[in-house]
Amino acid sequence: MRLIAKKHLPKPYCYGILLMLASLVFSLSCAHSPDNSSKFDASIQTAEDVGRLKALETQLTVTPEKAALHAEYQVIDNIAVPYVLEYKMGPGDVLEIVYHLKYEITPDDYRLEVQDRVSVNFPFQPQFSTSVMVRPDGKITMPLIGDVAVESKTAMEVAAVLNREYMKYFSKPSVTVALEAFNVKIDELKKAITTAARGQSKIAPVSPDGRISFPLIGGMQAQGFTVAQLEKMINERYAKQVRNLNTTLILLEIHHPKLYVIGEVEKPGAYDIGSVPNLLNALALSGSFKKSGQIEEIAIFRNEGLERPIAFKVNISRALREGIALANIKLKPGDVVYVPKTRLDEVNDTLEKIFTRGIYAVLPFSAAIGATYSINRPYLYP
Question: Domain-by-domain residue ranges, the chain?
Fold first, then answer.
């Protein structure tokens, strides 16, 4: 017998579907019944319980003797302190480079640098006397003998070279060399940092590509290095061009990388990793999870510094209920924390769609009750 479908389903079908959905809701609620097991170390109810808690804390305190057994601790001045990784700089961080120019007397003779100027004197052949600047290739040009390499030599060493070369032309040249202008690069450096309000220093932000530009030595990679590592690299590079110079780096501003909290939380968004070291802090700063949040299956997606992205779930509800440290899992830059909806909340959404928009809003008609369609109207088969 062929029946023509009306606007509403026959009552037996409606009752069957509603009974099926009710069974689903009941089974989900049973599946999420709380686990009464507990792993708490103490239950504070009396003054004696407080004393026992303090004794437990004393027993578990990490001493210098115990620090060797705990990789997360180190001993400084015979005190066990948590080991904290050195901060590695990134784009947006701001450094102050302080330049220390040393003017004290040194036992070593001054050695010529590029752009220094020297006067070369010939007491018996004054027509050859001249004043010359050290070229970028480290050489000077002299009459008769041409180019002479002088960079990194003392004035006396240059005079010895010139006397040896000019003896090919004169019996006793007696050439002398005197410094006219020296430490030219230090003067250039002073000019480059005179605008700094703090004196001989320069404010330098880390650019989006992770580099910092320095006077004389140009750009250097800063992202991924600690302050101490970058300071060492800067001093090594300056030492090749400027003597009697030392730099100190001061980290003025830190712009932490971000992590992201999305899903069923009150305030989803991006948060500084510095203020959100663990999962509980991330949830707290995001306004905590909504009632519709599935805190038994919070998902964390991680990709920073890995060969491929990874994803893992954390059961916050069980961690808090049983007093375990799972909820304090550390987060990393770029992590995405996703709080999904509960299964029951998804069922409620489905029921709301059914009662406000009809069964057609959520279930394909043909899949639900085996209906087939003609062009103009559906037919039901018994």
Answer: 3-32+355-380, 47-82, 94-103+196-251, 117-181, 258-341
The domain made up of 117-181 has a fold known as wza like fold (3.30.1950)
Q: What is the mean pLDDT of residues 93-119?
A: 81
Which strands make up the sheet holding 258-263, listed edge to edge?
269-272, 258-263, 336-339, 298-302, 310-314
pLDDT, residue 375, reads 35
Which of 357, 332, 346 minimizes the C-alpha distance to 263?
346
Report how far residue 148's alpha carbon sits from residue 314's, in angstroms, rounded to the nearest whole number: 72
Examine the pLDDT at 28 and tell me if it is beyond 60.
no
* DSSP state letter for 330: B
DSSP per position, 2-65: -EE--SS--HHHHHHHHHHHHHHHHHHHHHTPPP-----S----SHHHHHHHHHHHHHH---HH
CATH superfamily of 94-103+196-251: wza like domain (3.30.1950.10)
Q: Which of 84-93, 194-203, 349-358 has the lowest mean pLDDT?
A: 349-358
Whole-model pTM: value is 0.50
Contact yes or no for 226/88 (Cβ under 8 A):
yes
- Give strand ranges (E) for the chain: 3-4, 73-76, 79-82, 94-101, 117-121, 130-133, 139-142, 146-149, 176-181, 201-205, 211-214, 218-221, 245-253, 258-263, 269-272, 298-302, 310-314, 336-339, 372-373, 378-380
Instruction: Identify the pLDDT of residue 1.
Output: 42
Give the tokens for residue 371. 């209906």
3-state SS string for 203-214: EEECCCCCEEEE
Q: Stretch 297-317: mean pLDDT, rounded?
A: 81
d(CA 314, CA 172): 89
